[in-house]
Amino acid sequence: MKKEKLLVPFIAASVLVGASVTTPVFSHSAYAASSVSVYQKDVNSLADYYAPFYKTVEKKLKEIEGIKDDEKALAAYDQLADQIDQFLTKTDKNYAMNHLNSEAGQLQGYLYDSLIALYNYIVDLEDYAYGDVSDAEFNKISANFEKEINAYNTQFQQKAKSYKTKRKVTFNANMSYLLDEDIQPSPTAPPTPADSNGTYTVKKGDTLTAVAKKYGMTVAELKKLNNLKTDALKVGQVLKVKSTSAPSPAPAPQASVSAKQQQIVSYAKTLIGKPYKYGGTTPKGFDVSGYTQYVYKNAGSNISIPRTVADQYKSGTDVKQNSLQAGDLVFFKNGKSVSVVGIYLDKQEFIYVSSKGVKTQSLSTAYWKNSYAGAKRIIK
Fold first, then answer.
1. Model confidence at 182, in pLDDT bands (50, 70, 90)?
2. Fold assignment, 259-377
3. pLDDT in tens, 166-175
4. Which site from 86, 208, 307, 332 is most exposed, i.e. has the minimal number of CB atoms within 10 Å?
5. How do the domains of the chain map onto residue ranges?
């Protein structure tokens, strides 16, 4: 059954822009005799209510990442949307959540609205899978969703910090979880490089759509490359996943590396092995652009770059591939859009976040040659 998008309820919208929510009907004098303030109790209640469900959502999204069959993945997303809908309906009727102090109510607004944004994104994802939304439209929807979630997360972090300082409260483990972790769907992890022959062997449960997404191609491109007349696949069938391309330009002798460039490269390498997490911006888990932003910010140079791959691609100065220097950002296409970014090290090697975590790769391999989109220099 096709789902309709949810509208943000009035109370959630009002706390988002700073309006007061309903004043508690209980007497604040009840807290006067208590060593725990109303502000402490409210933030504890908020965290203890939302964190378990956020953990459920995160676990479900990780499970979906491992599903290879498109129909099963869509069914799992549909189930998750139902869970979110049920949780939000329950929240609307929850007395404690509707009687938080106004500042805790604002914090709740960011968490509540993030779930609505996720629910609506799943609706769009299903529309895309059924062909009701074009590639271009879905790319735009995904970019907007990422910005929306990042904005809610930033506002939540800032408001929580202010609340903690102003109201002199401590945060319990559940609140710490909400502050340290994001929830975002990961319909596609970073693309998988082809083997050395530029081929892929079909496994049980594979579909053309799944294989195309895995290698940053459209279904049409994959069918054309393999002269396929139908969408049917056979286990053991060998597919070409990228056409051959001209060799990468020979790199020019690298200019002397500045202290800042060396800082970026050295610090980037210290994070090798840190896990991948869609929407992640800390060593607990990075996505591709969260990693590059974190490295530039924390390598000692304190350089701020935009949050998303698309915005990072618009930053800095264009660099030719044969003029790459340590610390340059290198970009790659997944299909038609630029969706992967890494940091150039030296000798055709770069570092980025794969689905298995932070690792190094070579620009000389077939996959990265074919998907290379350009480079930007942030440090001069």
1. very low
2. endopeptidase fold (from Nostoc punctiforme) (3.90.1720)
3. 999 999 888 9
4. 86
5. 10-180, 199-240, 259-377
